[in-house]
Write a structure and sequence with these properties.
Strand order of the largest sheet: 6-7-8-3-9-10
CATH architecture of the largest domain: 3-Layer(aba) Sandwich
CATH superfamily of the largest domain: P-loop containing nucleotide triphosphate hydrolases
Order of helices and strands: EEEHEEHEHHHEHEHEEHH
Mean pLDDT: 93
Shape: globular
Number of helices: 9
Helix content: 25-40%
Low-confidence stretches: none
Oligomer: single chain
Length: 239
């Protein structure tokens, strides 16, 4: 079943076209990895899906409904959760309070249920021992985990992950991948932008490569990584 579909979506900032006529679909339970050079339009694509910015042309459908003009809070409540490349916690609030807030306002559940969701996510993401610590004092790895945990607390059907492995050590990236595998096995659909390619390849079912806002290649990970144009544009290798 198709969960998310983009139909010829475009976005420009002035004369710069950052998303150029992109169409894609993601099926329920799939992990779609997105690669591309810096400035290719990857995060802009996420912002269009989450509603942080408006499309100039094209349509977006989620779970069979048109959401092209829906505000971000409605998309979140409908089941689209996301993380940001730079973690954005409420730094003065505790880790637990961050998750309760996400559940209350993102999933729109009563406070008692939000507490239950927050506790489950704390255990799932390995943050339980930091529950009462101010979020602003966490290490980078745990801020990344909190970014993931806040998205999970909104009870998403689709999870958008923006370079969540960026800045992590090899061991930390491995821990993160194992957590994402558990999330995948729970049935949550994911779209993951990442430059840590080995992490992405360990979980992605398909890869989409974009360049200058256009689709360069999409398909099975092995085939995409062997594509001559992908190797030239993204990895700087000549065939």
């Amino acid at each position: 079943m198709t969960l998310l579909a983009l139909h010829q979506v475009s976005k420009s900032f002035g004369a710069l076209k950052v998303t150029d006529d992109i169409s894609l679909s993601v099926t329920t339970g799939e992990v779609l990895g997105i690669l591309g050079p810096n400035g290719a339009g990857k995060t802009t694509l996420f912002n269009l899906i989450s509603g942080d910015i408006k499309v100039d042309a094209g349509e977006i459908e989620f779970n069979g409904r048109r959401i092209t003009t829906a505000p971000p809070f409605q998309r979140c409540r409908d089941g689209i959760g996301r993380s940001y490349q730079v973690p954005q916690p409420f730094g003065a609030m505790s880790v637990f309070e961050n998750l309760v807030t996400a559940a209350c306002f993102g999933a729109q559940v009563p406070e008692k249920e939000a507490w239950e969701i927050a506790w489950d996510v704390l255990q799932q993401t390995g943050l339980a021992r930091f529950a009462n610590q101010p979020a602003g004092g966490l290490t980078l790895l745990n801020r990344k985990r909190l970014e993931l945990a806040r998205a999970l607390s909104t009870r998403p059907r689709l999870l958008l992950l923006d370079e969540i492995a960026g800045g992590l050590t090899e061991h930390e990236a491995h821990e993160l991948v194992e957590e994402l595998k558990r999330i995948k096995n729970s049935g949550i659909t994911m779209i993951w932008i990442e430059h840590v390619v080995h992490a992405l390849l360990s979980i992605a079912d398909r890869l989409l490569v974009i360049n200058f806002g256009k689709t360069l290649c999409v398909g099975a990970p092995e085939a995409v990584m062997q594509d001559a144009e992908v190797r030239r544009v993204y990895m700087g290798l000549e065939a």
